[in-house]
Specification:
The protein is α/β, with parallel strands linked by helices and 220 residues long. The protein folds into two domains: 64 residues, Winged helix-like DNA-binding domain superfamily/Winged helix DNA-binding domain (Arc Repressor Mutant, subunit A), CATH 1.10.10.10; 143 residues, Rossmann fold (3-Layer(aba) Sandwich). It is built from ten helices and nine strands. α9 links the parallel β7 and β8. α2 crosses α3, α2 packs across α4 and α8 packs parallel to α9. The radius of gyration is 19 Å and the shape is elongated.
Length: 220
């Protein structure tokens, strides 16, 4: 979707302006800031709608269908939603979720919303810390099945992509859960991190540069 949409530089310029406005912009604002005018601008707006990048909000007003990855690529002030995994406690004093959010904020990524995928058993082990996040629970064998994890997560992920820059974290829980997160990040072009717990350092498995390269974007 995005690669084809942004193969035209003027379409890319139009999307950039809308992203810079927080994901919503009027025809006149886009015309003034993108320097794409009149019927040419209308052509590119229609093209981006057909490609699934934009949607019409009202007469003369356009919005991004999904704010991730576009607002992430163009470094806007869109709020960040973190979505990660949480495994069994195993004598840990600090959950991987909190470590990841701390490291993201050290890199100037302000996290406004946190979603964590885990099992009921793991949640019980961490409950005394009263973590400030939204929980997505995988019951029984769901946490060890790739497709089951994706079935649980994808609806919420799709909803978040519309309003937030989403960062996925595949560090914790089970290997199938980590694979599920990697597959979702690839499919939806979502930035993906992994945290080295011993050194408390962060690795971008899918970074801004990775996504730009995949979409063949060199501008901005």
């Amino acid at each position: 979707m995005y690669r084809e949409a942004f193969s035209n530089e003027k379409s890319l310029d139009v999307a950039y302006v809308i992203a810079s406005k927080g994901g919503v912009a009027s025809f006149s604002d886009i015309e003034a800031q993108s320097r794409v005018k009149g019927s040419t601008l209308k052509y590119h707006l229609d093209r981006l709608i057909q490609q699934g990048v934009l949607k019409t909000l009202s007469r003369g007003t356009y919005g991004l269908k999904y704010k991730t990855p576009i607002c992430y690529l163009f470094e806007t002030n869109t709020p960040i939603a973190y979505m990660g995994l949480l495994g069994r406690r195993n004598n840990r004093t600090e959950p991987e979720t909190e470590i990841a959010v701390k490291l993201l904020e050290q890199e100037k990524h302000k996290v406004g919303l946190k979603y964590v995928v885990t099992s009921p058993e793991s949640l019980i082990e961490w409950k005394e810390l009263k973590l400030d996040c939204q929980w997505i629970l995988c019951y029984g064998d769901e946490i060890i099945e790739i497709d089951a994890v994706k079935a649980k997560v994808v609806p919420q992920l799709q909803a978040l992509l519309k309003e937030y820059v989403v960062v996925l974290d595949c560090t914790s829980a089970t290997k199938p859960a980590s694979i599920a997160f990697y597959e979702m990040a690839q499919e939806y072009l979502v930035p993906l991190i992994y945290v080295y717990e011993k050194t408390q350092s962060l690795k971008w498995l899918i970074s801004k540069e990775t996504i730009k390269s995949r979409l063949n974007i060199s501008k901005y």
